[in-house]
Amino acid sequence: VRPFFVGARRGIEREVLPTTEFEHLLLDLHPLYRQRPWENWRTAVGAARSWGALGALFARERPHAVIGTGGYAAALALAYGTTHGVPIMLSEADAHPG
Q1: Cα dihedral sign, 50-54-60-61
Q2: Rounded to whole angstroms, how far apart are CA atoms 55 and 50?
Q3: Helices 72-83 and 41-61, interaxial angle, to 10°?
Q4: pLDDT at position 93, please?
């Protein structure tokens, strides 16, 4: 197994991933601006550009699966995997058994 991490430039992964030996891609994603909805164009543009970046990544790396652990980057990567026939899994770290 050779993991490849996908994260957001705005998240904690921006600080953590560059300090590791793992290959990674940081996407320019933005949240939904609920208090300033006129800024949501950033969300749409970031998602469209990131979709293209994921396309290039998937073509190059040809992943066997996508595992999402939360956040904007996980949602987009899982959606890309789903629409392109790559099996997806979701890790819910704060779930309680039973």
Answers
A1: positive
A2: 8
A3: 50
A4: 78
| Longest Cα separation, the chain | 43
Q: How confident is the model at residue 70 (pLDDT cuts 50, 70, 90)?
A: confident
Task: Give the tokens for residue 30.
Answer: 């933005």
| 70 Ramachandran zone, left/alpha/beta (phi>0; psi -120 to 50) | left
Residue 62 half-sphere exposure toward CB, CA atoms < 13 A: 0
Q: How far apart are CA 73 and CA 11, in angstroms?
A: 9
pLDDT at site 98: 62
Give the chain's end-to-end CA distance (angstroms, integer). Answer: 30
pLDDT tens profile 3-35: 999 999 988 889 999 999 999 999 999 988 999
Read off the amino acid at residue 25.
L
